[in-house]
Amino acid sequence: LPFQWSCQIEERDAPVHEEAFLDVSGKAPMRACAEQLVKKLGKTGSILTYSPFERQVIRGLIRRFPALEADLDNLADRIVDLLPIIRQHYYHPDMRGSFSIKAVLPTVAPHLNYDQLDEVKDGTAAQAAF
To answer: Rounded to the nearest 5°, which phi and psi values hold at 14?
Structure first.
């Protein structure tokens, strides 16, 4: 059940900012999750991900909420999955054979790390919060 997302958004002539959604109400979170994602990501611009998972979740939301199909389909069509690009064109010894985002990120952006996140640092923590 989709109940959480987080995005770093970069817009022209503006600093990068975070948008996020985490439902902890105990009610079915899927529609609100989808609606907020559509609202915050707008209608244009590339959406960079690091696996096919996000597109799969969006496609699942389309099946669940056909009234949101056009907006969600727009999001899915704008996704650029960086994982295949990294696998084909980048490797650093500090990755130690792993292509997980947690292994790759410190080699390309050492100033960014998961320790800087607040309470929810991974999927398990998000599930616990939910």
So the answer is: -145, 150
Chain segment 10-65, per-residue pLDDT in tens: 988 999 899 999 988 889 999 999 999 999 999 999 999 999 999 999 999 999 99
* 19 bridge partner residues: 7
Beta bridge partners of 80: 48
Q: Are 1 and 123 in contact (CB under 8 A)?
A: no
Whole-angstrom distance, CA of residue 101 vs CA of residue 92: 13
Strands 79-81 and 47-49, sheet pairing: parallel
Question: Which range is least confidently modeled, 78-87, 103-112, 118-127?
Answer: 118-127
User: Which pLDDT score is estimated for 107?
Assistant: 93
The C-alpha angle 114, 111, 101, rounded to 5 degrees, equals 45
Element (H, E) at 52: none
Q: Which two tokens stand for residue 110?
A: 């050492």
